[in-house]
Design goal:
- By secondary structure, the protein is mainly α.
- The protein has one domain (about 1-170).
- It has helices at about 1-30, 35-65, 75-105, 110-115, 120-135, 140-155.
- α1 (about 1-30) runs parallel beside α3 and α2 (about 35-65) runs antiparallel to α3.
- The longest helix has about 30 residues, at about 35-65.
- The radius of gyration is 22 Å and the shape is flat.
- The two termini are about 20 Å apart.
Length: about 170
C-alpha cells in the first residue's frame, strides 16, 4: 500500500512545479530564452510554487510522522516509511526536477506546449459546471452537505470493527 500512496502523494509536488514552469514558459511568448533568462524562469517557478509545495509536504510528513508514536507496530512502521517516502518525494521535487529542467533547457518545449490540444470530457465538464452553478446557491450547498452527512452517519453505523491489529503489537 505504501508505494501506491507515495506515488499519488509524491507525484503531486512535481506536477505542481512542472505545471507552473510550463505556464510561465508559455506566458513569455515565442521569445527564445538565454541561459540567464531560463535560470530566472526556474527561480521564479520555485519562488512561485516552492512555498506551497514545501508546506504541503511538511503537513503530509507531520501527519504520517504522527503515526510513528503509535504502540501498534504495523501502524508505527507505516508512519515511519511513509514519512521517509514523502520526504524523499519532496526532495526530488524541489531539487531534481528543477535541475533536470535546467540541464535539458530545450527551446522546442515551448512549441510542444503551445501545440498540445486539450481533450474535453463531456461528463466531467458537465459535473464541474453543475458544481459551479450550485456554489452560488447557499441553500443548495447546505442541503447537499446535510445529505452527505446523513449518508455518512448511516454508513458509519454499518462499519464493523475489531481488534485484529492488537495481535501484531507484541
Amino acid at each position: 500500500m505504501i508505494p501506491v500512496l507515495l506515488v499519488a502523494v509524491g507525484s503531486a509536488y512535481g506536477i505542481h512545479i512542472m505545471n507552473h514552469y510550463f505556464e510561465t514558459l508559455v506566458s513569455i511568448g515565442s521569445k527564445t530564452l538565454s541561459e540567464k533568462e531560463h535560470e530566472e524562469l526556474l527561480g521564479a517557478t520555485m519562488h512561485g510554487v516552492g512555498k506551497a509545495v514545501s508546506l504541503a509536504a511538511l503537513t503530509t510528513m507531520a501527519g504520517f510522522g504522527s503515526l510513528a508514536t503509535s504502540k501498534i507496530i504495523p501502524v508505527r512502521d507505516f508512519g515511519i516509511f511513509t514519512f521517509v517516502g514523502v520526504f524523499a518525494a519532496f526532495i526530488v521535487s524541489i531539487m531534481f526536477i528543477p535541475s533536470i529542467l535546467h540541464f535539458f533547457h530545450n527551446r522546442k518545449a515551448k512549441e510542444k506546449v503551445k501545440t498540445t490540444t486539450v481533450k474535453k470530457n463531456f461528463i466531467t465538464d458537465s459535473l464541474l459546471v453543475a458544481i459551479e452553478r450550485t456554489a452560488h446557491h447557499p441553500i443548495a450547498v447546505i442541503l447537499t452537505v446535510a445529505a452527505v452527512v446523513v449518508l455518512s452517519i448511516a454508513g458509519m453505523t454499518r462499519v464493523k470493527y475489531g481488534m485484529l491489529l492488537l495481535i501484531f503489537s507484541k
